[in-house]
């Protein structure tokens, strides 16, 4: 451990269970000396095991539905009180599509479901930043990170409306990041993570297929949740102070590949059968 986050305070959204990327990140941040408040939707709290993580990391939990500005106001003000000062880092690790959950095809979305999924997965990032900005809750050289997926740039048919939500999320990171940088010297980035076996990840139809495909395509193999936590810690640290408005691929090289020998070999084997 490097004490990279010693003295830094933060808010971590989205730890549901031990597979969650936010869970692994909370553990890594704790190891690096950071202190934080954990938050999740009230309903997720009943389903998940977040209490275990809180006691392990000496953290308090403040429930908040990330679509509710009132909940977010309460969360931000309480967090500053609990942590004893302004915030240095925020992780937005939230995603949910009602269309995916209910098995609606992309070509025949239920638009009420679409609006709900967009609010949870994408607009919530704007809401979080808007509340932080309004209350001047971030310290100078603070860092805000949201997690995204490459379906924002390329077609992954079963990712459904989450592809559009991620495109919106990445755009919000740039647009809000400008104002946060200009006014408060705070950086805002998204990390575009490999397919990862979590509750949200495995909820996508055909997950096993595109997990295996991405792994065979990437020269370094898929990035794990643990490795994503490491990368996020680096973005929260003072070693990346001038990195902002970026969508950063954390995917073993997948995003720049055309085809790999391993994928081609598998494809040719199937052809000859
Ligand atoms: N798993 C993957 O393959 C993968 C790949 C790239 C990016 N991501 C992104 O990583 C992030 C974290 O997902 P994960 O894979 O760790 O899965 P996860 O299911 O463990 O986490 C998703 C979290 O979103 C929370 N959430 C849902 N609705 C909410 C609301 N209204 N308010 C507050 N929180 C709410 C859930 O309770 C849960 O904790 C998501 O943004 C996801 O899209 C995941």
Description of the structure:
- This protein is of the alpha/beta class and 273 residues long.
- It has a single domain, classed as NAD(P)-binding Rossmann-like Domain (Rossmann fold, 3-Layer(aba) Sandwich).
- Helices cover 48% and strands 15% of the residues.
- The protein contains 11 helices and 7 strands.
- A 7-stranded parallel sheet has the order 3-2-1-4-5-6-7, with helices on both faces.
- The relative contact order is 0.14.
- The model has no long low-confidence stretch (mean pLDDT 96).
- Bound molecules: nicotinamide-adenine-dinucleotide.
- Residues 13-14, 16, 20-22, 40-41, 44, 65-67, 93-96, 120, 147-149, 193, 195-196, 198-201 line the site of nicotinamide-adenine-dinucleotide.
- Nicotinamide-adenine-dinucleotide is lined by residues 13-14, 16, 20-22, 40-41, 44, 65-67, 93-96, 120, 147-149, 193, 195-196, 198-201.
Task: Offer a quick outline of the entry.
This protein is α/β, with parallel strands linked by helices and 273 residues long. It has helices at 21-31, 42-47, 50-57, 69-83, 98-101, 111-134, 162-184, 199-202, 207-217, 225-236, 261-272, and strands spanning 9-13, 35-39, 60-61, 87-92, 138-148, 187-193, 247-250.
For the structure shown, list the relevant keywords.
273 residues; Rossmann fold; alpha/beta; 7-stranded parallel sheet; 15% strand; binds nicotinamide-adenine-dinucleotide
Side-by-side strand order of the widest sheet? 3-2-1-4-5-6-7
* Whole-number mean pLDDT: 96
Cα-atom radius of gyration? 18 Å
Secondary-structure element order, as H and E? EHEHHEHEHHEHEHHHEH
CATH C-level name: Alpha Beta
Which architecture per CATH?
3-Layer(aba) Sandwich
Structural class: alpha/beta
Main pleated sheet: 7 strands, parallel
What coarse outline follows from CA principal-axis ratios? globular
β-strand percent reads 5-15%
Q: What small molecules does this complex bind? A: nicotinamide-adenine-dinucleotide
Terminus-to-terminus distance: 50 Å
């Amino acid at each position: 451990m490097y004490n990279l986050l010693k003295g830094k305070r933060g808010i971590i959204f989205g730890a549901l269970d031990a597979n969650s990327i936010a869970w692994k990140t909370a553990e890594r941040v704790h190891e690096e000396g950071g202190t934080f408040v954990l938050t999740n939707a009230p309903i997720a709290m009943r389903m998940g095991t977040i209490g275990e993580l809180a006691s392990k990391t000496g953290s308090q939990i403040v429930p908040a539905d990330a679509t509710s500005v009132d909940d977010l106001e309460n969360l931000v003000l309480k967090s500053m009180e609990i942590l004893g000062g302004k915030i240095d880092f925020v992780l937005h690790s939230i995603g949910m599509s009602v269309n995916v959950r209910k098995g609606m095809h992309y070509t025949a979305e239920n638009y009420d479901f679409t609006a709900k999924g967009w609010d949870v997965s994408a607009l919530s990032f704007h809401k979080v930043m808007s509340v932080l900005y309004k209350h001047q809750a971030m310290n100078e050289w603070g860092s805000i990170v949201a997690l995204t997926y490459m379906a924002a740039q390329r077609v992954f048919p079963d990712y459904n409306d989450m592809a559009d939500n991620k495109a919106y999320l990445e755009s919000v990171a740039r647009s809000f990041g400008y104002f946060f940088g200009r006014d408060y010297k705070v950086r805002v980035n998204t990390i575009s993570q490999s397919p990862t076996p979590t509750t949200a990840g495995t909820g996508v139809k055909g997950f096993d297929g595109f997990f295996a495909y991405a792994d065979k395509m990437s020269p370094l193999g898929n990035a794990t949740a643990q490795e994503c936590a490491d990368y996020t810690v680096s973005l929260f640290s003072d070693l990346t102070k001038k990195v902002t408005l970026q969508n950063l691929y954390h995917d073993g090289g997948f995003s720049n590949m055309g085809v790999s020998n391993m994928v081609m070999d598998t494809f040719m084997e199937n052809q000859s059968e």
